[in-house]
């Protein structure tokens, strides 16, 4: 069973996640700049709500089930009247569907739950045919998973990693399977990419980052490496919209 408070404590223990989050948000914001994004619904903002990096919107509604993440984000919102936030699961949220969202962002949790199809069924009731739905999930074909496979450290790149087990994750997606989830749910996939080539595990990356020669320029380089290895980034970014 999903424990909101336990999840938040575990999530904050992943120190390299803070570094990776920067590049994840950079990728998302760059994409938002290419599409109509006046009215945004963000589901599961975690530690890094989109409004912290992106200001070109009319309204932003946020649904965040975690109490700590909710309180932290609410404090950051302050008196910004363009943003609303609810502390609940999306199935429980009260939304003004007259908003006709341009963008719905599903935070990186579809791999962590046993009912991703149910989440998409809720999204179908909220989205219009013009709404672009975006999400991100870890990539089974990430460089670091394939390296572990070829090194004989794991038997399959679809094995649950130490962090997967820590969070009780339910799915390990590749680009085809996350795309199939959306297609089977009545969506058309518009874009499916990977970003940030992470050669080692979070724990190993943390150890490397303590070396004097391991600068932010190296991390910037890892982010740009998908130019050469387009399928081997550590996370998958997907955008979709309802089938016509």
Query: What about the largest sheet?
Result: 7 strands, mixed
Total of DSSP H or I helical runs spanning 4+ residues: 9
Strand order of the largest sheet: 3-2-1-4-5-7-6
What is the residue-averaged pLDDT? 90
Backbone CA Rg: 18 Å
CATH architect. name: 3-Layer(aba) Sandwich
Number of strands: 7
> What is the approximate shape?
globular
Q: In the CATH scheme, what's the topology name? A: Rossmann fold
Q: Spans with pLDDT under 50 lasting ≥5 residues? A: 5-13
| Total domain modules | 1
CATH class: Alpha Beta
**What order do the helices and strands follow?**
HHEEHEEHEHHHEHHE
What does this structure look like?
There is one protein chain. The protein has 244 residues and is of the alpha/beta class. The chain has one domain (4-242): 3-Layer(aba) Sandwich (Rossmann fold), CATH 3.40.50.150. It has 9 helices and 7 strands, in the order H-H-E-E-H-E-E-H-E-H-H-H-E-H-H-E. The protein has helices at 4-11, 15-32, 67-77, 116-126, 143-150, 162-167, 175-184, 202-209, 216-224, and strands at residues 39-43, 59-63, 83-86, 103-106, 132-138, 187-195, 235-242. It has a 7-stranded mixed β-sheet with strand order 3-2-1-4-5-7-6, with helices on both faces. Helix 4 (116-126) links the parallel strand 4 (103-106) and strand 5. It starts with a helix and ends with a strand. The model is unreliable at 5-13 (pLDDT under 50).
């Amino acid at each position: 069973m999903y424990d909101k408070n336990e999840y938040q404590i575990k999530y904050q223990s992943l120190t390299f996640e803070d570094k990776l989050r920067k590049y994840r948000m950079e990728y998302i914001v760059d994409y938002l700049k290419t599409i109509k994004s006046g009215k945004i619904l963000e589901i599961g903002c975690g530690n890094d709500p989109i409004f912290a990096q992106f200001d070109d919107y009319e309204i932003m509604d946020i649904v965040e089930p975690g109490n700590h993440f909710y309180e932290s984000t609410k404090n950051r919102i302050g008196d910004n009247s363009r943003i609303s936030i609810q502390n609940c699961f999306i199935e429980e949220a009260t939304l003004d569907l007259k908003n006709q969202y341009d963008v719905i962002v599903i935070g990186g949790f579809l791999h962590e739950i046993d009912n991703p199809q149910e989440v998409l069924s809720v999204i179908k009731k909220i989205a219009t045919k013009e709404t672009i739905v975006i999400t991100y999930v870890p990539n089974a074909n990430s460089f670091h998973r394939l390296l572990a496979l070829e090194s004989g450290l794991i038997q399959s790149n679809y094995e649950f990693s130490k962090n997967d087990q820590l969070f009780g994750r339910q799915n390990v997606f590749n680009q085809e399977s996350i795309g199939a989830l959306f297609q089977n749910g009545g969506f058309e996939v518009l874009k499916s990419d990977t970003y940030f080539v992470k050669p080692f595990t979070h724990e190993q990356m943390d150890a490397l980052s303590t070396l004097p020669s391991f600068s932010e320029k190296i991390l910037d380089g890892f982010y740009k490496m998908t130019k050469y290895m387009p399928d081997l980034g550590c996370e998958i970014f997907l955008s979709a919209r309802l089938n016509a």
